[in-house]
Design a protein that fits this description.
Oligomer: heterodimer
CATH architecture of chain A: 3-Layer(aba) Sandwich
CATH superfamily of chain A: Thiamin diphosphate (ThDP)-binding fold, Pyr/PP domains
Order of helices and strands of chain B: EHEHEHEHEHEHEHEEHEEHEEHEHEH
CATH architecture of the largest domain in chain B: 3-Layer(aba) Sandwich
Distance between the termini of chain B: 50 Å
CATH class of the largest domain in chain B: Alpha Beta
Order of helices and strands of chain A: HEHEHEHHEEEHHEHEHHE
Number of strands of chain A: 9
Helix content of chain A: 25-40%
Radius of gyration of chain A: 17 Å
Largest interface: A-B, 35 and 39 residues
CATH topology of chain A: Rossmann fold
CATH class of chain A: Alpha Beta
Number of helices of chain A: 10
Strand order of the largest sheet of chain A: 2-1-3-4-8-7-9
Largest sheet of chain B: 7 strands, mixed
Distance between the termini of chain A: 46 Å
Number of domains of chain A: 1
CATH topology of the largest domain in chain B: Rossmann fold
Shape of chain B: globular
Strand order of the largest sheet of chain B: 3-2-4-5-7-6-13
């Protein structure tokens, strides 16, 4: 009997804790498939964040380290510098990466650390129950901005891909989403490209995945996908933000 | 072997290289910046890794990443920087990782001063970050000990899978002394089969984490760590006692004050006062029983605790002595090193009060 579809070798047979409609599981799958297709599962070392993906290390079928909140890029620096020939990646949410860990991600990108960061941007703190993130859209409600985020009080949402793309060490930044099959395929291609650039020693690579949080957004998964498409993607433009890797020798 | 003249901070760096330190991550801060400077030149020469981190927070997390891969990783800093590292040290302890951290202490609190101090006794010996862990803390009082202890620290950390801190005051970082690069005690080390090196050759992946969502699991981890800490307390206590056997007054001090007290002892004894020095070398585990046993003897009237702080180690001294003898204190804070004369005066005053 031939398999038409099966779980990637990159994931372990463990039930995930993610809420219904959450995109983490899909993105885990894409990363796992890329690592499997590139035959990197025996070599790769991942770093998981603090936030909803804190258990990622339990789900992936590869070596993993759990970092302190926001510090994954520093942890990954310690790994990659001492293991320059092995693939290394961080998997971080927006509270972890854009807020408490903003310093670490900026400097890892500045140094051109040759690892890949998969950044899940769902505009909210999921694990702690739906507080405002630096990426929360203006007007979007969260438990610490219950009338919706105001620019006056909390500033404008942060575009991490564009910000990191200003740094020469960052050779590739692309913003993707996984709300439908065409986008999902694009996301997988982007993740694969990032790992290919990494293995070729090009520099720092960054994939931002716009994601939903139906639980804390207070929406059905379908409504949440719709919101992502209409509102989030309007502010956070999908597509390649930077790709200078081809020029990097 | 011939003696060579070395500066404290450069000894820290060179000793680490000699001990097989694979990677060093640091951030500049006075009075220890010679360490990252030396490392930036010499680590690459040995094919090892040097990274200047963007902050102490990043530096200690780079240490975490490399240590979790089974490598000998190190960072150094001074008091305000160590405060910033405490989060990372807690994660290192919680993930049962070996690492070596050197604190070249300066005066605090806040920005304080760049002058030498011992005001980090609490944050060194009480864990420092959140959680029930302890770091093994060694306090050399001369450059030879510094060379020996830094080399030994990597083995101790690997042996116990626990962070080791070398605590010196800025004076020891900055002075030059003749030293000998002599062999230190080596241990038979357990394999690092927990390290994340890529799962090739293993059936299951390795996960380095300090997260245990089930409180039963977290308790189990803590109990295991506690048993390890007990083992450390039983086996790694170090101290030096000079003239304590017949002393009427025992001065307790570590680091720079301890070496000043050696001159104090001579002077007091020529004046007919029998004084001894008890010097904890391991600040944690604190040499509680040996101190207690010396102080409990009939010849001892009192104890004078001398620190370059407002008095932090004095808590451990009191706990060790269990109220058997009065404990007096003399300390200078804010970067001032007490003089021989000041300590003699404090000792005489304490003896007078005891009469």
């Amino acid at each position: 009997m031939a398999y038409i579809y099966k779980r990637s070798e990159g994931l372990r047979d463990i039930p995930m804790h993610y809420c219904p409609g959450c995109h983490h599981g899909i993105v885990h799958k894409l990363v796992a498939e890329v690592l499997e297709e590139m035959d990197l599962l025996d070599e790769v070392i991942g770093v998981c964040p603090v936030g909803c993906a804190v258990f990622a290390g339990d789900y992936f079928n590869c070596d993993f380290q759990e970092a302190a909140h926001g510090r994954a890029p520093a942890v990954a620096t310690g790994i990659k510098r001492t293991h320059p020939n092995q693939p290394v990646f961080t998997y971080q949410g927006d509270g972890d990466l854009a807020s408490i860990g903003a310093g670490e991600i900026v400097h890892a990108a500045m140094r051109g650390e040759k690892f890949t960061t998969v950044f899940i941007n769902n505009g909210i703190y999921g694990m702690t129950g739906g507080q405002m993130a630096p990426t929360t859209l203006i007007g979007m409600k969260a438990s610490t901005c219950q009338d919706g985020r105001s620019a006056e009080q909390a500033g404008m949402p942060m575009r991490m891909s564009e910000m990191l793309a200003t740094l020469d060490g960052c050779v590739y930044a692309e913003r993707v989403c996984v709300i439908d099959i065409p986008n999902l395929n694009k996301a997988k291609r982007a993740i694969k490209k990032a790992f290919e650039y990494q293995m070729a020693g090009k520099g720092f690579t960054f994939i931002e995945v716009l994601s939903t949080c139906p639980t804390n957004w207070g929406m059905t998964p379908l409504k949440a996908n719709q919101f992502l498409k209409e509102k989030m993607a309007a502010y956070y433009q999908l597509g390649v933000v930077k790709d200078t890797a081809q020029e990097v020798k | 072997m011939a003696k060579e003249l070395w500066k404290g901070n450069e000894v820290i760096a060179e000793a680490a290289i000699r001990a097989g330190c694979d990677c060093y991550f640091g951030y500049p801060i006075t009075p220890q910046s010679e360490v990252p400077e030396y490392m930036s030149v010499h680590m690459p020469k040995h094919g090892r890794i040097f990274v200047q981190a963007e902050s102490e927070v990043a530096a200690i997390n780079m240490v975490y990443g490399a240590a979790a891969c089974g490598l000998r990783a190190m960072t150094t800093s001074s008091s305000p920087g160590i405060s910033l590292m405490q989060e990372g040290i807690s994660y290192i302890a919680g993930s049962r990782l070996p690492a070596v951290i050197v604190n070249c202490m300066r005066g605090g609190p806040g920005l304080g001063t760049i002058q030498p101090s011992q005001a980090d006794y609490y944050q060194s010996t009480r864990g420092g970050g959140h959680g029930d862990y302890r770091t093994i803390v060694l306090a050399p009082s001369n450059i030879q000990e510094l060379a020996d202890f830094v080399q030994e620290a990597f083995d101790i950390a690997d042996y116990y899978r626990n962070p080791v801190m070398i605590a010196v005051d800025g004076m020891i970082g900055q002075i030059l002394e003749p030293i000998e690069w002599r062999p230190v005690k080596r241990r038979e080390l357990p394999p690092k089969d927990w390290a994340t090196t890529g799962k090739r050759g293993r059936k299951t992946p390795n996960l380095v984490t300090s997260l245990f969502m089930d409180p039963e699991d977290c308790d189990r981890m803590n109990q295991l760590m506690g048993e390890n800490l007990k083992r450390i307390e039983e086996n790694e206590t170090r101290y030096e006692a000079i003239g304590c056997d017949d002393a009427e007054i025992i001065l307790v001090a570590y680091g720079t004050p301890a070496r000043i007290i050696i001159s104090v002892l001579d002077e007091l004894r020529t004046q007919g006062i029998k004084a001894g020095l008890f010097r904890p070398i391991s600040l944690w585990p604190f040499p509680e029983k040996p101190l207690h046993d010396y102080v409990a003897k009939d010849n001892v009237k009192l104890v004078l605790d001398v620190e370059m702080s407002l008095g932090q180690m004095i808590d451990d001294v009191r706990l060790a002595i269990k109220g058997k003898k009065p404990v007096h204190f003399y300390g200078r804070a804010g970067g001032i090193v007490p003089t021989v004369e000041e300590i003699i005066e404090a000792a005489k005053k304490a003896l007078k009060e005891a009469k």
